[in-house]
Design goal:
The chain contains three helices and five strands, in the order E-E-E-E-E-H-H-H. By secondary structure, it is of the alpha+beta class.
Length: about 150
């Protein structure tokens, strides 16, 4: 849920999901600058302000695809590379590409909701909280200790 994926240290970008009655993904909308605000969460979609409740499902960009995805995304990515060849900070957001394919009827996406708590590193100030969460998960036996096996 959106409220569980925010940083305390600044805005984040999330793809807000809308599901159909059958639970399949109907649309994705990239919303930038999402932050907690009085009475909800605020952000920007296409430069316009938006207000969300926080219970919306968001994509955390964990996708599983069939090989057909390469044909679906190939031309779009080639065009992106040509348009942004000189910009090392340019990003070709996967949710936007999937949203376009959904709108055109060229893709179907089954959504698997996760009840797990999310933590992540969006801003440098998030680092210590991430370290603490990893330590906690090791202590609880959720993650192995050592976290990374020795390389041989």
């Amino acid at each position: 849920r959106l409220r569980d994926t925010l940083s305390r240290h600044g805005g984040v970008t999330r793809a807000v999901c809308r599901l159909g009655a059958d639970g399949a993904l109907e649309s994705l909308a990239e919303v930038e600058g999402l932050e907690s605000a009085r009475g909800g969460i605020t952000g920007r979609k296409g430069g316009a302000p938006v207000r969300l409740a926080g219970d919306e499902l968001v994509s955390m960009n964990l996708w599983g695809f069939t090989p057909a995805v390469f044909d679906l995304l190939g031309a779009r990515f080639d065009a992106f590379r040509r348009a942004h060849a000189g910009d090392p900070d340019a990003e070709c957001p996967l949710p936007e590409a999937i949203a376009e394919a959904l709108a055109a009827g060229r893709a179907t996406v089954r959504v698997l909701e996760s009840p797990d708590a999310w933590f992540g590193l969006t801003h440098a100030a998030d680092l210590e909280a991430v370290r603490q969460e990893i330590r906690l998960r090791i202590e609880r036996g959720v993650y192995p200790d050592p976290l990374l096996p020795e390389r041989r």
